[in-house]
């Protein structure tokens, strides 16, 4: 593999479903071209940033590097229509709007707010391990457990009715799986836009209902929020709901399923965790580093600048590669080794700086609760087939994880 071929992994959804290929390519880029210009006929040019230090430096400098107009990598047609999509979520905002809108839900996701959910999360973890125990010793861990458990947590927080949860799961998979033929509604941008329209229709109805009948759930908090003294706009409210209802569970599902896959590929680490349950918190951090469910965000330069001595002009975009940063040899000892006791673990899977993930504490609590419940109750576990990963450019993890197990 040469440098130019290595740069193509960021534009190929199949690369994120092929761990060996992706990490071989990004290791080469970190060594030989850590600020690498990628030019591809389907994409507007961008610079791929692959080292931890550079990703962090760009993420913390929200004045030089902004989200607009290209918050995430997509092909040219998506870039061309971004300004025509009226729904705005936090990931598309910069200051001064971003901190004001982020404040709307910040208290719900602070450690103190998340701790209030711990009993409900532990109950749901137990419920899904019970469900797994009742499946007769074989299941698809992603489809049967990991995709549903965080979904129930976040949608319960929002206050959505349980009968709507399957619909939200399907729409989320269509949104993030738009480049995967198993998950996309239909090929191309039309399916993506239709999925967004379905989200808008659902959440516009929810907004109207919570304004007429406010409750004590997060959906009511968003619907009735004020921004600079004015009621939040419908499009901004819908953008908020879409972000929380999708990224709020899909990334955690990916980390949980990918984390179990890593444990099964490293049975010594499963045995180590089973022998010492106090390792669950560090094990979950390692799962999040290992999977890095959010593959990239983009930033655009507001002025002429340099990264690692490479000139980048105002208006040019960089891709922050979180999976690459999380395998950086300068930061992590033996980064290609899955280690449930890894300390310290300076991974960047939740981002950094002004756009640090709102749901960080919730995701950690969900992962810890599930594995604290699961590991002691499993007597034996192994793969029962070949896992498959989502083909994606943005967010993803396993889409199939067949396992065989006996419960203790």
Automatic annotation (TrEMBL):
Pfam families referenced in this protein's UniProt entry, alphabetically: p450 (PF00067)
SUPFAM superfamilies: Cytochrome P450
Residue spans crossing the bilayer: none
Record key words, sorted: Heme, Iron, Metal-binding, Monooxygenase, Oxidoreductase
This protein's record includes keyword Iron: yes
Domain of life: Bacteria
CDD domains associated with the record: CYP142-like
Family: Belongs to the cytochrome P450 family.
Protein name in the entry: Cytochrome P450
Lineage, highest ranks first: Bacteria, Bacillati, Actinomycetota, Actinomycetes, Streptosporangiales
